[in-house]
Specification:
Length: about 240
Amino acid sequence: MDDARRNFLVRTLALSLLASGWSRNALAEILGRAPRPLPEGVSIFRLKGEVTVNGEAATAETMIGPGDHIRTGANSELVAVIGDDAFMLRENSDLELSLGDRARQGLRLLTGALLSVFGERDEDARLEARTPVAAIGIRGTGLYMEAREDRSYICNCYGQIELSASDDPSQRETIVSRHHDDPRWVLREAEDGRRILPAPFINHSDMELIVLESLVGRQVPFGAPGRAYPPGQQNYHY
């Protein structure tokens, strides 16, 4: 994305979010410095609060590797890049990465919430995201996940995923989305024989997706302005 396009999107979204009730202070905190591909040897764009990588306290200089184990504390957040993928890990989250195998890659969100954008893989490569109750097959998409005690929330922001209950592959859906079209709950215990149910759009925004895609030199596939949640209305319930 060139600077002119990026600046146009930021200005347009800022005006839209102000009209939707965002404060100028909240916008300043989110926009911060202009998102753009990180220089070589840098993988963290934003680090807030208590973040550990493989049990060690993270700093702005910490490199995030494809096999790392990342945890965030209360009121904490990590925005980072690994190769062609970028992610935003919310507070009170526990994430295990296994992105080193070229043919079979994955990540596991044990608790908390994660917004990710993924670059395209080779035809023979497999990328899978998991929570304690959900399995998601991915090929070049934007994805938001929450791992709660009794269920997981999955939003295929754009692209295509294969969604199933992790312990019951017969409970399965293929979801193709252009713009947060079909969010889902995946339940630990079935309701009326169903583990996968429709869900609302919650707790992530188009602004955040624009930031993540900008960090890996791409654009979101939808126009601006888009969907956003008002500050203070995130209801993670981990």
